[in-house]
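Lab notebook, design round three. We kept the backbone fixed and only want residue identities now. Task for the bench partner: fill in a sequence for the structure below.
Input structure tokens:
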């Protein structure tokens, strides 16, 4: 695991957000990024602040390859970059609020909320992994495990670090802000930026922490090698433990459509356009789609009651499933 200074400096730079620097400035910029990692590493070693950003994002991307899902798993740590008066964002209470505020939102909103819950599952499994590792290696700290897990995530499960799109996503910012004391989306936007790009040694962002993990792997190869089998077990269990808080709306509507297609031709001709409308709303999710979806399902219920009670029952099940938590 040896590496020349020039080689590992460029390695740290490769994932930094400064890849468009002209050639003769690249080494200077890379050295600056490496310097931040060198400063951050000892601070993380003695701090409870450090979050395993890399493991959260890498796990999420392997679980559901959707950038909003990955963002939810990562941004559950957003409270590290919010004012101290704001609530803990990686808690069941806050995650439940994210799900509630996303319920009538876009597909992106649902993916974000799913990822937020995934973060909590990862946290629980990470805690169990720490207990197992410290039982075998009592001198290893929680931060040793965090940095080792991030190192192995970057090594075995590299993931995209392109999250700038969220800086302009007002829906995401509104959903998160709804659970804050300030209720201000601009505060959320600033916190997202800091989570990604902060070079404050006392509050390092994603890039700084990933660079610190790379450096940790170079400086402490024996620790990361010892932790590797525990990381593999953690990773496999966390990916398998995914849970979805939302109803499988697309599947339920597809099943309803199949049911309608099995009806006699005249009944099918009456009901199929109504089902197609409901499917289109769920697929495209235009503004106000949720209210329109409920209205479309109620029309199906009203029309099918005299034609096909089995369709009425299936449509009511979808209405019940869509009821906000």
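Proposed sequence:
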């Amino acid at each position: 695991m040896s590496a020349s200074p020039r080689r590992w400096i460029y390695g740290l730079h490769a994932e930094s957000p400064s890849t468009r620097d002209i050639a003769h400035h690249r080494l200077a910029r890379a050295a600056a990024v490496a310097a931040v990692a060198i400063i951050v590493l000892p601070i993380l070693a003695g701090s409870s602040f450090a979050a395993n950003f890399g493991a959260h994002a890498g796990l999420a991307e392997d679980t559901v390859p959707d950038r909003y899902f990955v963002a939810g798993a990562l941004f559950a740590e957003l409270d590290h970059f919010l004012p101290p008066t704001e609530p803990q964002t990686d808690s069941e209470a806050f995650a439940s609020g994210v799900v509630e505020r996303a319920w009538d939102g876009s597909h992106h909103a649902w993916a974000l909320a799913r990822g937020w819950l995934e973060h909590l599952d990862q946290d629980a499994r990470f805690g169990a992994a720490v207990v197992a590792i410290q039982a075998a290696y009592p001198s290893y700290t929680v931060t040793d495990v965090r940095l080792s897990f991030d190192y192995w995530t970057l090594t075995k499960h590299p993931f995209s670090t392109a999250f700038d799109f969220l800086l302009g996503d007002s829906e995401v910012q509104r959903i998160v802000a709804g659970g804050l004391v300030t209720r201000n989306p601009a505060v959320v936007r600033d916190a997202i930026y800091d989570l990604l790009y902060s070079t404050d040694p006392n509050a390092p962002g994603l890039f700084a922490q990933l660079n610190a993990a790379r450096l940790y792997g170079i400086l402490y190869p024996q620790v990361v090698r010892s932790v590797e089998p525990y990381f593999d077990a953690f990773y496999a269990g966390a990916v398998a433990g995914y849970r979805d808080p939302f109803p499988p709306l697309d599947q339920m509507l597809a099943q309803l459509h199949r049911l309608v297609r099995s009806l006699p031709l005249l009944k099918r001709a009456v009901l199929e356009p109504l089902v197609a409308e409901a499917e289109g709303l769920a697929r495209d999710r235009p503004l106000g789609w949720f209210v329109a979806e409920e209205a479309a399902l109620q029309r199906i219920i009203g029309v099918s009651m005299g034609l096909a009670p089995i369709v009425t029952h299936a449509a009511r099940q979808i209405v019940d499933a869509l009821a906000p938590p």
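Keep this in mind before ordering anything: The beta strands are 199-200, 203-204.
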